[in-house]
Write a structure and sequence with these properties.
- This protein has 202 residues and is of the alpha+beta class.
- The chain is built from three helices and twelve strands, in the order βββββββββαββαβα.
- Strands 1-2-3-4-5-6-7-8-9-10-11-12 form a twelve-stranded antiparallel beta barrel.
- The N and C termini lie far apart (37 Å).
């Protein structure tokens, strides 16, 4: 399969597999595409927080990356494991390597007030920026496909609710752009699901 280059966007679909509704903590399934080619899929297992390991599989259903919750006190921690090797850990709004060094920061560009209100209403996030630790360069953008209107913020909420009611569950709901080559697409896909569904960086 062709490699995903830095200039190509990943698009994400969300859908419900009704045969998996009985699976404990199952919320939804996600599929990651480049153009119209399926790259990865993920059955997202979480409720209030991610409490079970989730596995990203490729288009042949082969596991490529595992997201494992890490028990402990403090902010939720998720480790990304590839072939039993540690890749990176998400701790709050930072991505941390095996030595504990920040390798990237997760930035929610919404104002604090908007982000808190959105979280209280359990609304979808608009977008996130993955930046270098010094915040001087952008490594990836995770952006809602429906957040690019010129409508003012309060009206945009009503517009998104109308889209959510009308649109089928299997439409593209967000995309990942401007991908720096230090990130694999499967890592960004898993991270994007965590952020767009939990939006817990506030």
């Amino acid at each position: 399969m062709e490699n995903v280059t830095a200039s190509r966007a990943l698009k994400i679909k969300k859908y419900c597999d009704h045969s998996k509704r009985a699976v404990e903590h199952y919320i939804a399934s996600f599929a990651c595409y480049v153009d119209n080619t399926l790259l990865f899929q993920l059955d997202y297992l979480a409720k209030a927080n991610m409490c079970k390991a989730c596995v990203i599989v490729d288009h042949t259903n082969t596991p490529v990356l595992e997201m494992r919750p890490v028990k402990g006190i403090g902010r939720e921690k998720i480790s990304f494991i590839q072939q039993e090797k540690f890749v990176v850990k998400k701790i709050g709004d930072a991505l941390v390597d095996a030595q504990g060094n920040n390798v990237a920061l997760i930035v929610d560009p919404s104002s604090l007030g908007k982000a808190l209100l959105r979280n209280a209403l359990n609304g979808d996030a608009d977008n996130f920026i993955i930046s270098s630790p010094d915040k001087k360069s952008t490594l990836a953008n995770i952006r809602s496909i429906h957040s690019q209107s010129d409508t003012s913020w309060p009206l945009r909420i009503a517009t998104r609710l109308a889209h959510a009611i009308k649109r089928p569950m299997n439409n593209f709901i967000y995309k990942i752009e401007n991908i720096d080559d230090r990130f694999t697409p499967e890592l960004l896909f898993g991270l994007s699901v965590l952020l767009m569904q939990q939006h817990n960086t506030v």
